[in-house]
Every structure is written in C-alpha cells, then in structure tokens.
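Quick start: load a record and inspect it. Here is Sodium:proton antiporter:
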Amino acid sequence: MASTVIDVIAIVLLAVGLGLTTIGLYGLLRMDDIMHQLHAAGLITGPAVILILLASIATGSDEIITSAALVILFVLITSPLSSHAIAQAARRRGGTDDDEDD
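Running the structure step on this input writes:
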C-alpha cells in the first residue's frame, strides 16, 4: 500500500515537472527579450528540474537518491547565480529596455 502511494506521488511530481518544463521551453523559444527568456529558463531550472529529481527518489535506490539530492543542491546554488550573471551581462551590453532611465 505504501509503495503504491509513493508511486502515485512520484508520477504526479514527474507530470508537474514535465509540464513546467514544457511551458518553460515554449516561453524560452517565444520570448524575444533576454530578461523574459531568463524568466522562462528560471522556471525550467528551478522548480521543474527539482520536481523531476524528487520523483526519482521513488525508485528507492540509494545511489539514485544520493545523486538526486546532490544535483538538487547543485541546482539550488548555481541556478540563481548563473541567472544573475546573465542578467548583469545583458544589462551591461545594452540588451534590455530597462536601461532607459539610467
């Protein structure tokens, strides 16, 4: 009974993660401004990847759980840093329309 509940939770997490990934990829391809593309990329690298990795915990394998936990930690640390660096580079290069007041 418990394994069935864990499997259902894993399927829901995987479905939501893949849905967010699909929406984020569509937004990434459709947006023309780098800041809007960063917002869509943040949707992919943040919640979507973490939900998919959380779904992999249902396998019960120690190696997979350890790897998923380490990758989640890595994503939580590097995703905001890389988005911030890309946004700063775009702003310095003049790739946004937000600089009109400066």
